[in-house]
């Protein structure tokens, strides 16, 4: 089939790399549904025109000694064309089949001019398979042969027989080349837009990270660092006056203790600011997950939340880890699965808390035994980039991660953390 990159490319204003020749819309093995339908239509049209021409020849020249040759070549043409539709193969194989079909068709037309109009599907096939210059040369040759065949069939000179085939061939070629180049331009534009969005997102992440680091550095400098500096000076002064002026030394110590208490308050505030926002102000994990589900229910994805078991107050580290797990899993679902619905299920038992994240997306093939079912084993090749962080976070708390999926039936991620003290597995 014709590949867009076989045509001369228009000048591109983008710095992006050219599309790979194996990744175009007409590349074998990468056909879309429309490509397959068009190939089937061309094959059907060729076989129908071939059958009509053969029937006409049999009815008008059934006693001709050329009939066995024409019949045999017609069968070869039909078989090669249908086989090419059934098994497209590589581009090289497609060009070989086209050469065989064109050669047989030329012989048939020389024997029986009524087969000339079978060239119409061949013209489009040539445009899809060959580079532009080669395709134009072949189309010109086919149109010339059709003109000669029509003149042989005509009783007298008819200008339409001379003009119609070249005009039809020129229109087909011009329209195809224009549409192909336009599709290439649009693909370049789409590639530029996607690349720009990625660069913009990366820039925003870097700027956000830098801004947060600067904020934390200012907070630490203005609170903890200044307090530690004051404590150091007060303690040094107390040490110098401990023997000569005990009362002043005690005053310095009391002031240093007060500053230390204030610094501890500031440190706790900083730690609190770094915790997940949905868990701020004392909100429980269930409420935070419900808020997350409501916030993520957008753009065609509906997220539901359900809690089972008693409403247990979970340690801050456990609640934060499970909330981060839910956030990462929903991000993967939105980006990769194509799901319409997802469900968060929080199950609290006496000694364990579990979070299930299920979706109805496209899923993926089941891994080898011990793959994603291994809660803390080596990274699974089917995982996205967010799962290693989830596994590491759960591992720090002695937790496990399991993933189950079947192609076309969605996936279920289960994160489990024990509530009793446990020794985390060795790295």
**Which strand-content bin applies to the residues?**
5-15%
Q: What share of the residues lie within helices?
A: 55-70%
How many strands, what sense, and barrel or not for the largest sheet? 5 strands, mixed
Name the structural class. Answer: alpha+beta
**Spatial arrangement of strands, main beta sheet:** 1-2-3-5-4
What do you see in this structure?
- The chain is of the alpha+beta class.
- Helices cover 61% and strands 9% of the residues.
- The chain is built from ten helices and five strands; from the N terminus they run ααααααααβαββαββ.
- It has helices at 33-61, 67-86, 91-111, 119-129, 132-153, 159-241, 246-274, 285-296, 316-337, 386-396; strands at residues 302-308, 341-348, 352-359, 400-405, 411-418.
- α9 (316-337) links the parallel β1 (302-308) and β2 (341-348).
- It is elongated.
- It starts with 32 loop residues before the first helix and ends in a 9-residue tail after the last strand.
- The model is unreliable at 1-30, 369-385 and 422-427 (pLDDT under 50).
Topology of this structure?
Elements: H1 33-61, H2 67-86, H3 91-111, H4 119-129, H5 132-153, H6 159-241, H7 246-274, H8 285-296, E1 302-308, H9 316-337, E2 341-348, E3 352-359, H10 386-396, E4 400-405, E5 411-418
Parallel strand pairs: 1-2
Antiparallel strand pairs: 2-3, 3-5, 4-5
Helix pairs in contact: 1-2, 1-4, 2-3, 3-4, 4-5, 4-6, 5-6, 6-7, 8-9, 9-10
